[in-house]
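Dear colleague,

Thank you for sharing your sequence with our group. We've completed the structure prediction you requested, and as agreed, I am returning the results in plain text so they can be pasted directly into your records. Please verify that the sequence below matches your submission; if there's any discrepancy, let me know and we will rerun it promptly.
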Amino acid sequence: MAGHRFDPAKADKLLDPKRQDLVDSDLVAMKLNISDGANVMDLGAGNGYFTMPLAMRTSGDVYAVDVEPEMLGLLGVRAQERGFDHIGLIESDLEEIPLSDNAVEASVAAFVVHEVANRKNAFREMNRIMKSGSKGAIVEWAQVEGEVGPPLHERLDPHVLMEEMKKTGLILDELVETKDIYTIYFSTEK
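Please find the predicted structure tokens below.
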């Protein structure tokens, strides 16, 4: 079962400087080797914690996808304040994203996969939208009790996610685990 959705009323927590200690959004974006002019997507973009570092690395289109219009509105304001006119806001779940095949060269899905009802459909969508040889990252909560993040019963085993990803054609490159989170770096077939 999918977990509960993040409450937009708590959006400020997503930009708390302490969050950088939990996960370095710049490092994740850097590891995707985004070339200037590349199109990228941030799935479950929220108010842009990962969107902004992605947007700094390319002059191409940056697609910020989120199911919550309020979160996208907050992201739109932040993007405008920072002069990022190449960020497009897309209200959508992750199981049927209104982007064309082979539209992006990199993708991030951070702290959102545990909320998806059908993860295999979401992984198939990522694979469909990403060009051959593209890089991506999935960031999720470790299966430990924590002061932040969803309840323990909503947290996903990284090895279960990796098996689901492999079954949809995604190639696993690296699993990076810390005490509170993990990041699965992956690529699409060349």
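Summary note from our side: The helical segments are 19-22, 25-31, 51-56, 69-81, 119-129, 158-167.

Kind regards,
the structure core
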